[in-house]
Amino acid sequence: MHPVIRLVNRNLTISLNKGFMIWQVIFPLIYIFVGGFAYTALIDSVSYGNKTLGYPAYIASGMIGFNIMNSALVSGIIIWNDRRHGMFEQILVGPFTRTHYILSNVYTIGIIGLISATLITAVGYPLFFESVEFNFLTMPLLVFASVVGSILFGSIASIISTRLKSSEGFNVVINTVFLFFAFVSTAFYPAEGSPVPLSIAFYFNPLTYLVDVVRAGIFGNFDTFVAIEMLVLVTLTLTLFSIATKLLAKLEL
Amino acid sequence: MSCIETKSLSKSYGVINAVDDIDLSVNNGKIFGFLGPNGAGKTTTIKLLTTLIPPTAGTMKILGIDAIRSPLEVRKKIGVVLQQPSYEPTLSVEKSLEKYGMMWNVERKLRQDRVEELLLSFDLAELRNIKNDELSIGQRRRVQVAREFMHDMNLLFLDEPTVGLDPSARRGLLDFIKDKAKDGLTVFFTTHLLNEAEYICNEVAIINKGKIIAVDSPEELKNKFGREKTIKIHLDTIRKDLSDLLIGIKDYELDFNSGTNITIRSNDSEEVLLKILQILTANNIVIEDLSAIPTSLEEIFLSVVNKSNASSN
Ligand SMILES: Nc1ncnc2c1ncn2[C@@H]1O[C@H](COP(=O)(O)OP(=O)(O)O)[C@@H](O)[C@H]1O
Ligand SMILES: [Mg+2]
After folding, report:
1. Closest of A126, A190, A113, A123 to residue A153, by C-alpha
2. Cα A15 to ligand 1 centroid, rounded to whole Å
3. Where in chain B is CATH 3.40.50.300?
4. Do residues B33 and B203 make contact, with C-beta atoms less than 8 angstroms apart?
5. Are A85 and B88 inside 8 Å of each other by CB?
6. Which CATH number among 3.30.750.24, 3.60.15.10, 3.50.50.60, 3.30.70.250 corresponds to the domain B228-294?
7. B163 CB near a chain A CB, below 8 Å?
8. Do the interacting molecules here have an ipTM over 0.85?
9. In angstroms, rounded to a whole number, what is the distance separating the alpha carbons of residues A237 and A103?
10. Is A51 on the interface with B (CB under 8 A)?
C-alpha cells in the first residue's frame, strides 16, 4: 500500500469516532429540525433566485456547507494533536515524508468532507425535497463544494495549528474563527433583509460562497454569479493551501 | 560492517553547538550506549542520525546509505523511539499497536501476532482496551517502545527509553532489548543512567557539551579511567591506635563502628593494601573481612565529564 493511503487510513481511524459523529451528524440534525422549525415562525420563507424556499429547506441546504467547513476542522485537529502528542515527529522518523503527511491530510479532509456532505444531504433531503431541481450540474457542484470547501477550511485550520503553541490558544482561536465563518454567512439566514453592513460582511466570508454553490446545485439556479463565486473559492483555496503547505514543510522540529 | 558512520557531524542552534564535530562508528549487532549529562547533545545526535533534522555540517552513513541524500531510504530501515512521548490519545493500547503496524505496511496476520506477543512482553495485556489518554506516563512509554517492535528493522534508536518506568519494567525492557540484540539487531541507546549502559551496552561513548570525550567498551573505560579502586578491610576489634600504626601511609580512611573499618581509595590500591597488611600482621591484628569494590561506570563518567568541563573552562 502506498504510504499516503496508509496515513489516510490512520487519520480516518483516529478521526471517525463518537465525538465526530455527534459533531457532524447529531448537532446539524438538531440545528435543522429544532432550529429550522422553530425559526419558521420568524422567517416564514426565503426568496431565493426565482423561487421561494421554506426556512427549513433553506437552513438544511446551508447546513451542508456548514458541515463541510466543520469537517475541515478535523484536519486542523489532526495536525494540532500530532504535534502535541509527538506523532508528527514519530511519523517523520518513519517511512514517510512531509509531502506524504500533507497529502494524507488533504485526502482525509476531502473524504470526511464528502462523507459529511452526503450524510447531511441525505438527512436534509426530505426538507428541501419540494424545491429540489436536480440537473446535470447538481452532482458536480456538490462534489466541487465538498472538495474545494474542505481543502479551503482545512488549510485555514492547518495554518492555525502550525502557528500556535499553547493548547488553550488553539481551541479559542479555532472556535472564534469558525464561529465567525458560521454566523456571518448565508448558511443560516439570507443576505436580503439583513442589516446592510452584515450583508456586506457575508461576502467577505468563503462559507457564503460555498453555501451559494451548494444551493445552486440543489435548487438548480447556477448562473454567472455562482460561477464567479466558484472562481473566487478556487483562487482563495489555492493561495491558502500553498501557505499551509509551506508552513507545514518548514515547521521546526 | 559499520552500521553508523559519521564524519565531523555537527549541529548548531545559533551560538550553541549542540553537536560538535562528532565522528562515530557503530558496528553491526552491537548495543551502543550514548552517555552524557542533560544537555550534552544526545537527543540532537539521535535526531540527526534518524534524519529528523539536517546537520549543519558533516556526513553520515546509516546502514551504508548516505543519510543526507537519501533520508527516506534510511528511515524505512530503522526504528526510532524518541525522547519525547508520542501516542494516539483516542486509540486503545491494542489498536495503537495494530495501527502502527499498518502504517509500517506490516501484513495483517503478522500484525495481529505481533500485537499479542508485544502485549505480553511489555506487560500490557491488561491494558489492551484502555485508551492511551488514560494511561500513566510509564505505561505510555512502554506502549511507545513496544510499538516500535511492530515492524522489522536493522537498526533501532532509543532515546532514554526507560525514563518514567518502575524498576521492574525497566529491567524487563533492558532484557527485551538485550534479547533482540542477540538476534542481530543493532541498537543505539542513549541514557544518563550509567548502570543501564553498563548492564546492556557492548560499547559506550561519553558525550559532553556536544563533543565525544571517550569511546570504548564499559570494561575498557573502567581500565583506562577507573584504575582507582576501593578496598575495604574490616577488623573485628576497635583499634583506636591504628592511625598511629599506619602513620606515613596515604589514601586510606578509618572509621570505628562494630569493629574498625579501613577504606583504601587509590590508583595504587594494591600497593597501599600490601603495606597496610604488613603493618597489621606485624601487630597481630586479625582481619575479619576484606573486599575490593570495582569502580562503577558512574564514577568514571563523573570524573571524565568533570575533567572535560575543567579543561574547556
Ligand atoms: N531546537 C533547539 N533550539 C535551540 N537549542 C537547542 C534545540 N535543541 C537542543 N538545543 C540545545 O542543544 C543542546 C543539546 O541538547 P540535547 O541534544 O537535547 O541534549 P541531551 O539530549 O543530551 O539532554 C542543549 O544545550 C539544548 O539546549
Ligand atoms: Mg535528550
Report:
1. A113
2. 33
3. 2-224
4. yes
5. yes
6. 3.30.70.250
7. no
8. no
9. 15
10. no
| Ligand 2 mean position, distance from CA B34 (Å) | 11
Short-list B186, B182, B263, CA closest to B228:
B263
Distance CA A189, CA A63 (A): 11
Tell me which chain A residues have a C-beta less than 8 angstroms from the C-beta of B47: 253
Least Cα distance to A206 among A66, A64, A21, A98 occurs for: A66
B102, three cell numbers = 499498518
Separation of B42 CA from ligand 2 center, angstroms?
5
A167 touches chain B (CB under 8 A): no
- Contact between A129 and A52 (Cβ < 8 Å): no
| Helix-then-strand count for chain B, H and E | 11, 14
State the distance from the centre of ligand 2 to the C-alpha of B183, rounded, in angstroms. 27
Domain ranges of chain A: 3-250
**Average pLDDT per run of 10 along chain A, which is 253 residues long?**
94 84 77 75 74 82 86 81 93 94 88 82 76 83 90 89 80 85 86 82 92 90 92 96 90 80
Chain centre to alpha carbon of residue B120: 25
Q: How far is CA A237 from the centre of its chain?
A: 12
Interface probe for A, chosen from B88, B98, B153, B154 (most Cβ of A below 10 Å), is: B88
Of A10, A81, A93, the CB nearest to B50: A93
Q: Give me the DSSP letters along A170-230.
A: HHHHHHHHHHHHHHSSTTTS-STTS-HHHHHHHTT-HHHHHHHHHHHHHHT---HHHHHHH
CATH 1.20.1250.20 correct for B2-224: no
Q: Is B247 helix (H, G, I), strand (E, B) or coil?
A: coil
Q: State the span(s) of chain B assigned CATH 3.30.70.250.
A: 228-294
Q: How far is B59 from chain A (nearest CA, A)?
A: 18
Question: Nearest CA to CA, how far is B20 from chain A (Å)?
Answer: 19
Is residue A114 exposed (0-12), middle (13-18) or buried (19+ Cβ within 10 Å)? middle
Strand order in the sheet with B2-13: B16-27, B2-13, B57-62, B65-66
pTM of the model: 0.82
Which residue in A has a C-alpha nearest to residue B105's C-alpha?
A: A1
pLDDT per position as a tens digit, A28-65:
778 777 777 777 777 777 877 777 888 888 888 888 88
